[in-house]
């Protein structure tokens, strides 16, 4: 996927002016955030569970090579295959090679952010293989030719009306008089369209929430059951997973599952939690003939041992997006690449470079809500600040901004000079603003005063008034 | 027992110093009423957040060293701001990972530093203030104070003792106001959208006064309310607790 993160500010401005998007974003606040808060309040051991989940991931990341190799051995022993891929190109090639060998015409896909990261759909289409998204949200954005706006609810930026229009425009063979007003009707329509595609697909591709080293299994959680049809009906099941998805044991996976569903949707458990272990065995009633795991690095191993390693604990629950005031204001597509919100602001520069993604770690108020709700306790604001430091070291912020900062620091590092400057500043601004008590416009502060007034200073600095008071007390 | 009075240094913060010295005087009054001997070290300017949040680590370290030196030796350092208090308490120690001697001094300072209202309640065990304010107030929980320093119940507890004042909670009181320091200027459009949500919630709360413990949030919220012609009065919580209530933020006649 081509990144538009450089144009973040323009993207955000468009998003703020888009009434449909703003209407859709309202649902985030009442939906995800409130349901998560309720689910967490029902679980007295929540904090303990979080600590356990963090400890599992820390241990795994410290021994990542060991657990990945253990996972591969188990997969191989069960007749599956792990494909180690350094980058998106290698991963796309691995998927395409399997499709070609099986002479695949269509592939069904469950939701996979790694698939988005690889740009897999474009690659398959360019090579004559038709991908069909089967997660309802992914299906909607596929027919609209849009990127996802949220990592677990890819079409959350759309209203029902927009979705209904897209269905009518795409599903032309259906009765034009049919009703498409509520979620039920739209689900029924999508089901009717997708059911034959499941049966026709040659290859099924899913993501993975976990890879389990102990058993060589992959686990997905869904609420639609589309993942199960995607992976069990075709000739081959391909799992797309980034390498930090591995955990040592099934017990570990179930610990993290308990924080995942609550953090993501406020559910105790997702409707479907599906464990896949190898291809169909002789006495299995059904299942795919082949089982492949495409294991993607794409820059992640370079984060190990560094200041961004904690980011590899992320389990893609999206709680940080759902609680972020910036995400709530502009939605996910403004971020311009695959991963939006606070987790995207940290991960995107790691994966596509800070030159392309520099806006993302800067577009945060550091309100800290993301870290507060993150089930894996990832210090997201701290890591966004690390990116700002990497940017600053490389002189990437605009020259005027850096000069302004240097001038400010010059005064701040000289308190005696600063005290005089502050008192003069307070006197001048206080004098000019005394009649109204505030400014409607102010040079150098246009960004602020375009939409807000600036309250005027009272007219003297505290430090100068205090010095006078101390002197007066001494005289008295 | 004047000798047993704790020596408290006030870190007034750059925004209070420049925009609203009356908050500094309110803090001094509250601290003195609580039995503290208050001093204001002259070698103070800013805590360094603008540099820190812009990725300028070198300037941040220089500023932090200066603050550490200026506030050495006091029993406590009190800050009428959760975000500047959070900077000293939660972030200074991490700045000097490769300078153990300064890191130790930073930890020492962090251990003595408190946000004003939490200091009054948690350390000085103040249970009530003698002040009067006629109005219905709602309190915005500033992010750093809330999430870095645990300031939540303390201001509400003291406000409950202010005569004439009723406190009403707004919806999403713990959600950011969109200020974020330089964020408010660098990403002004997004900042404006976030503060619009905040001011909508203030309006819906039915309060006639908005209180908070951070000048940055207060300037942002006051500016947005004023642009909309909203008469809600905006004040730092210290002003109300100290009974120093001159013109509200953005009201004319601010000459002190």
What is the assigned CATH homologous superfamily of the largest domain in chain A? NagB/RpiA/CoA transferase-like
Question: Which whole number gives the mean pLDDT of chain A?
Answer: 96
How does CATH name the architecture of the largest domain in chain B?
3-Layer(aba) Sandwich
From the N-terminal CA to the C-terminal CA of chain B, the straight-line distance is 34 Å
Structural class of the helix and strand makeup of chain B? alpha/beta
Instruction: Give the biggest beta sheet of chain A.
Output: 6 strands, parallel
Shape of chain A: elongated
Helix amount of chain B: 40-55%
Could you say which overall geometry of chain B the principal axes of the C-alpha atoms support?
Answer: globular
Structural class of chain A: alpha/beta
Number of domains of chain A: 2
Largest interface: A-B, 72 and 76 residues
**Radius of gyration of chain B (Å):** 18 Å
Order of helices and strands of chain B: EHHEHHEHHEHEHHEHHEHEH
Here the CATH topology of the largest domain in chain A equals Rossmann fold
Largest sheet of chain B: 4 strands, parallel
Architecture overview:
- Chain A is an alpha/beta fold.
- Chain A has helices at residues 8-16, 19-41, 46-62, 64-77, 88-101, 113-118, 120-126, 136-143, 160-170, 183-200, 226-232, 250-264, 319-322, 325-330, 341-352, 354-357, 359-362, 369-373, 380-393, 399-412, 415-433, 446-449, 462-475, and strands at residues 81-85, 106-109, 130-133, 203-206, 210-212, 217-222, 236-242, 246-247, 272-276, 290-296, 438-439, 454-455.
- Chain A has two domains: 43-302, Rossmann fold; 400-475, no CATH class.
- In chain A, strands 1-10-7-4-2-3 form a six-stranded parallel sheet, with helices on both faces. A four-stranded mixed sheet of chain A has the order 8-5-6-9. Chain A has a two-stranded antiparallel ribbon with strand order 11-12.
- Chain B has 256 residues and is α/β, with parallel strands linked by helices.
- Chain B has two domains: 2-122, Rossmann fold (3-Layer(aba) Sandwich), CATH 3.40.50; 128-242, Rossmann fold (3-Layer(aba) Sandwich), CATH 3.40.50.11810.
- Chain B has 13 helices and eight strands.
- Chain B has helices at residues 14-19, 21-33, 49-53, 57-70, 82-95, 100-112, 116-123, 143-149, 153-159, 183-186, 188-205, 215-227, 237-242; strands at 7-10, 37-39, 76-79, 113-115, 132-139, 163-167, 209-212, 233-236.
- Chain B has a four-stranded parallel sheet with strand order 2-1-3-4, with helices on both faces. In chain B, strands 6-5-7-8 form a four-stranded parallel sheet, sandwiched between helices.
- The relative contact order of chain B is 0.15.
- The mean pLDDT of chain B is 96.
- The chains are: A alpha/beta (476), B alpha/beta (256).
- The interface between A and B is large, with 72 and 76 residues.
């Amino acid at each position: 996927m081509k990144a538009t993160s450089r144009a973040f500010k323009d993207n955000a401005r468009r998003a703020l002016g888009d009434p449909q998007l703003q209407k859709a974003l309202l649902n985030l606040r009442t939906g995800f955030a409130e349901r998560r808060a309720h689910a967490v309040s029902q679980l007295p051991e929540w904090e303990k569970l979080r600590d356990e989940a963090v400890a599992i991931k820390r241990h795994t990341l410290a021994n990542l090579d060991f657990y990945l190799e253990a996972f591969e051995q188990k997969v191989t022993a069960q007749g599956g295959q792990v494909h180690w891929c350094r980058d998106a190109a290698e991963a796309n090639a691995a998927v395409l090679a399997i499709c070609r060998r099986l002479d695949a015409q269509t592939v069904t896909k469950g939701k996979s952010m790694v698939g988005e990261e690889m740009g897999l759909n474009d690659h398959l289409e360019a090579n004559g293989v038709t991908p069909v998204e089967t997660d309802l949200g992914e299906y909607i954005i596929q027919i609209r030719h849009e990127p996802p706006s949220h990592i677990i609810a890819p079409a959350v930026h759309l209203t029902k009306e927009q979705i209904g229009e897209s269905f009518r425009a795409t599903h032309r063979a259906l009765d034009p008089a049919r009703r498409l007003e509520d979620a039920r009707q739209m689900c029924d329509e999508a089901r009717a369209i997708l059911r034959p595609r499941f049966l026709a697909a040659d290859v099924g591709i899913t993501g993975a929430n976990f890879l389990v080293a102990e058993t060589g299994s992959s686990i997905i959680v869904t609420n639609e059951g589309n993942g199960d049809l995607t992976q069990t009906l075709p000739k081959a099941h391909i799992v797309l997973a980034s390498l930090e998805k591995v955990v040592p044991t099934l017990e570990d996976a179930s610990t993290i599952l308990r924080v995942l569903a609550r953090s993501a949707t406020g559910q105790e458990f997702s409707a479907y939690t599906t464990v896949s272990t190898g291809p169909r065995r002789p006495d299995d009633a059904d299942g795919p003939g082949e089982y492949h795991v495409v294991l993607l690095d794409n820059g992640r191993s370079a984060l190990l041992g560094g200041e961004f390693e904690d980011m590899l604990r992320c389990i893609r629950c999206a709680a940080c997006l759902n609680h972020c005031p910036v995400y709530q204001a502009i939605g996910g597509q403004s971020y311009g690449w695959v991963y939006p919100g606070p987790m995207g602001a940290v991960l995107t520069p790691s994966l596509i470079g800070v030159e392309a993604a520099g806006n993302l770690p800067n577009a945060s108020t550091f309100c800290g809500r993301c870290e507060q709700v993150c089930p894996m306790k990832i210090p997201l604001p701290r890591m966004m600040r690390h990116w700002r430091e990497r940017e600053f070291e490389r002189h990437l912020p605009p020259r005027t901004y850096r000069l302004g900062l240097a001038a400010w620091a010059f005064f701040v590092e000289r308190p005696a000079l600063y005290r005089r400057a502050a008192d003069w500043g307070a006197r001048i601004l206080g004098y000019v603003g005394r009649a109204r008590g505030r400014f409607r416009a102010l040079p150098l502060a246009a960004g602020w005063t375009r939409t807000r007034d600036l309250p005027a200073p009272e007219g003297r600095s505290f430090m100068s008034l205090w010095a006078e008071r101390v002197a007066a007390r001494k005289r008295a | 027992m004047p000798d047993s009075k704790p020596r408290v240094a006030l870190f007034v913060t750059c925004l209070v110093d420049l925009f609203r010295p009356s908050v500094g005087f309110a803090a001094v009054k509250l601290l003195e009423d609580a039995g503290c001997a208050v001093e204001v070290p002259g070698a103070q300017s800013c805590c360094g957040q603008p540099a820190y949040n812009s990725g300028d680590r070198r300037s941040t370290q220089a500023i932090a060293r200066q603050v550490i030196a200026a506030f050495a030796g006091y029993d406590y350092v009190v800050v009428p701001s959760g975000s500047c208090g959070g900077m000293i308490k939660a972030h200074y120690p991490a700045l000097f990972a490769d300078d153990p001697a300064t890191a130790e001094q930073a930890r020492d300072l962090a251990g003595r530093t408190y946000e004003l209202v939490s200091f009054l309640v948690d350390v000085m065990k103040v249970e009530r203030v003698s002040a009067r304010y006629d109005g219905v107030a709602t309190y915005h929980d500033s992010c750093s104070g809330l999430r870095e320093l645990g300031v939540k119940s303390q201001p509400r507890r003291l406000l409950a003792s202010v005569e004439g004042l009723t406190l009403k909670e707004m919806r999403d009181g713990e959600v950011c106001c969109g200020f974020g320091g330089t964020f408010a200027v660098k990403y002004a459009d997004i900042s404006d959208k976030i503060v619009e949500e905040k001011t909508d919630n203030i309006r819906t709360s039915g309060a006639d006064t908005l209180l908070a413990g951070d000048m940055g949030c207060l300037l942002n919220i006051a500016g947005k309310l004023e642009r909309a012609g909203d008469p809600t009065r905006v004040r730092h919580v210290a002003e109300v607790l100290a009974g120093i209530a001159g013109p509200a933020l953005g009201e004319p006649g601010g000459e002190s």
